[in-house]
Every structure is written in C-alpha cells, then in structure tokens.
Specification:
280 residues; alpha/beta; Arc Repressor Mutant, subunit A; D-Maltodextrin-Binding Protein, domain 2; five-stranded mixed beta sheet; 11 helices; 46% helix
Length: 280
C-alpha cells in the first residue's frame, strides 16, 4: 500500500470528486481511478460509491480516513526529518490555536528560532481539538492553546489568564436574536449554553478563531470571544461588551510531549516566560 494511493484516496474523500482529486494530486483522472481500484483490491473493500454527482465514502472508506491521514502525515514528517541538513541537531513540530496567532506570537517565533539556530521547525495552526489530538499522537511536540486535554504523557504550563466574554457589534439590547455560537471546546460550549439558557436563532456555529470576531463586526452579531483577542476592537468601538452577561475562566496553556528533548523544552519555556505573550 503506497503513500501516493493513500494521498489520492484522501484527496477524493475531501473533494467528493475523482476529477477534483486528480487536480489536487497533479495526475490524470484515469490515474486516480486506477489508484483507488488498486487500493480497494488490496484492502478487499469498496471505498467509494460513485454517481454523476461525484463520489461518496462507504463505511469502509470512512474507517480508512483516520489511518490513511496518519500514514500520509507520518511520511511527510519523516521526509522533513531525513532531509534536514547536518547543522540541525533536532527538529520541533510546533502548533498554536488559530486565535493565538497574533503579532506577539509571530515575534516570539522569530526570536526563538534565532536563539535556537540548530533546531529545525515545523509550524502549524489549528483548532484546539486537532492540536490536542496531534500532540497525543506524536505529530506535534509543543503547542499553545486554550482548552488542553491533560494526560499523563503530556506536560503543561499556564501561559496567561484570560476569560471568555460576550461581545456584540450590534445593540446590547438585542444581542439574543443576534447571538452566534463560537466553538471554544465542547465542555465550555455546554456550560455557556446552560448559563445563557439560549438556543441561537442564527443557526450558525463558528470555529474560526480570531476571524470569528471579524464575522461579528461585519454582520453586527454577538458571541463569546477571549477578552485578550478582542480588547483592541472594544477600544476602537467595533465591539462592545454585553453588560451582566456571564463570563467564563479561559486560561491559555503551553503543552508538550514529555518525551521531547529536555534542553529544548527548557529553552522554549524560558523564552515564553520572557515574551510579550505572557506579559500582555
């Protein structure tokens, strides 16, 4: 089972079309068809149902998604590791939650890379659920996020205190009809819904990190955002806090795999403690 077949399978699953998958992996549609047929033959299952509208995963195809994604990502990481010049003593896979990627974090990344010239970095962003999963599965070594999953094999350090506050770009008197649910973790989502006793009339769930605030401003809607991330928008008058709405404790953390290089971990934690990220 080769990686090109798995990559093609993932492209077809994501696009819902063998033609679109061919464009994504830069081969002909007939090559996509042949690769999928070979994969199905080796596994002894049918992976897709096809019709004029495109392709849909079968139950077997849905079961293959996770293992295929892990295999392709593992090979990508291996290629990165093996291809590193000799001047790098190790590599670091680093991720941060979308909403944390501000100028302060970018400055920290640049400064820390400069102070660790013998470390190669692989940097990504994502929602907390994916970052937690990738950290647990070994695809990431070190992450910054809200809503961490605490595990025996994962170390953690509080990064800074924050809270989720209800803000609106419309009227504070009518925020209930303009309320949008913004994803900040399942447990916190349940708590917010319970405290507000409110079913969002908009029928909209956002998981866009910092860009969720852009949506609120552009469409004059209301939702919960980390106070630090919207402080400048409140000061500029783009958003306002909804008075008397419940607030929710929402600290950010640095988390890491306990098997990562100890000297590298120490350097990362020290640089974070002395950075704008913790000072702001």
């Amino acid at each position: 089972m080769d990686i090109s077949s798995l990559s093609t399978f993932l492209a077809a699953a994501d696009t819902g079309s063998f033609t679109a998958a061919a464009q994504r992996v830069h081969v002909s549609p007939s090559t996509v068809t042949e690769r999928i047929k070979q994969l199905e033959h080796r596994l002894g299952v049918v992976l897709f149902e096809r019709d004029k509208r495109g392709c849909r995963l079968t139950l077997a195809g849905r079961k293959l998604l996770g293992p295929a994604s892990q295999a392709v990502r593992a090979i990508d990481i291996a290629r990165h590791e093996v291809g590193l010049p000799e001047r790098f003593r190790c590599s670091l896979s680093f991720g941060a939650q979308y909403v944390l990627w501000n100028d302060g974090l970018l400055d920290w990344l640049a400064q820390t890379r400069g102070s660790l010239p013998d470390v190669a970095w692989r940097v990504t962003s994502g929602a907390s659920a994916r970052l937690n999963r990738d950290l647990a599965e070994g695809f990431l070594d070190f992450v910054l996020l809200y809503d961490p999953v605490f595990r025996p094999d994962i170390g953690s350090m509080p990064l800074f205190e924050d809270e989720l506050i209800l803000v609106t770009a419309g009227s504070s008197d009518t925020w209930r009809k303009d309320y949008v649910r913004i994803e900040w973790g399942r447990d916190l989502g349940v708590e917010i819904a319970s405290r507000l006793d409110l079913a969002p009339e908009s029928g909209l769930l956002l998981d866009l990190g910092e860009r969720s605030a852009d949506w609120l401003v552009k469409h004059a809607m209301a939702g919960y955002m980390p106070a630090r991330s919207v402080a400048s928008r409140i000061e500029a008058g783009e958003l306002s806090r909804v008075n008397h709405a419940p607030r929710f404790h929402f600290p950010a953390y640095a988390c890491w795999r306990r098997d990562m290089d100890e000297s590298l971990l120490t350097a990362l934690l020290e640089s974070l403690k002395n950075s704008r990220i913790c000072a702001e």
